[in-house]
Amino acid sequence: MAGQWMMILIGVSLGMTCLAAPTECHFNSQALCEYEGRHYSLGQSWMEQGCIQCTCLHPFGVGCCETVEQPVDFPPWCQVRVESVTCKVSLVLTSDPRLPCLPGEGNSVDPSHGEMNMKLAG
């Protein structure tokens, strides 16, 4: 019975932590509630590199969830860029990551080929 309550507590805590519709979560019962030299107590959260939010579930361990939902349906000439500080996701052109990639109707020409390249160059 105590094991069931522990799993419910962990599930509720992870669910509350991951409001950003995480793509993956994990729980480590051996992990310490510590990150970059700072100690955390029960219920406290912190953001790790890679946009992973962790919550201290002491004495049970640490639960972590990805907070960035990566797009999966975009043209091959686009790539996903995740800003590590803000965890903001955007699509950029593979040929020039400084430019946004705007997939959709009217933007169906691969900019690395043909007519669109001539318009950009001239």
Walkthrough of the structure:
Residues 1-22 and 114-122 have low confidence and may be disordered. The termini are far apart. This protein folds into two domains: 2-66, Ribbon (Complement Module, domain 1), CATH 2.10.70; 70-109, N-terminal domain of TfIIb, CATH 2.20.25. The chain is elongated and about 50 Å long. The chain is an alpha+beta fold. A hairpin with a 5-residue loop joins strand 5 and strand 6 (62-66). It has two helices and eight strands. Strands 1-6-5-4 form a four-stranded antiparallel sheet, covered by helices on one side. Strands 2-3 form a two-stranded antiparallel ribbon. It has a two-stranded antiparallel ribbon with strand order 7-8.
Q: Could you give the count of β-strands?
A: 8
Over the alpha carbons, how many angstroms does the gyration radius reach?
21 Å
Lateral arrangement of strands in the main beta sheet:
1-6-5-4
Please write the CATH class name of the largest domain.
Answer: Mainly Beta
Number of helices: 2
Helix content: 10-25%
**Topology pattern, helix = H, strand = E:** HEEEEEEEEH
Multimer state: single chain
When the domains are counted, the total is: 2
Main location: secreted
Signal peptide: 1-20
Organism: Pangasianodon hypophthalmus
Family: Belongs to the beta-microseminoprotein family.
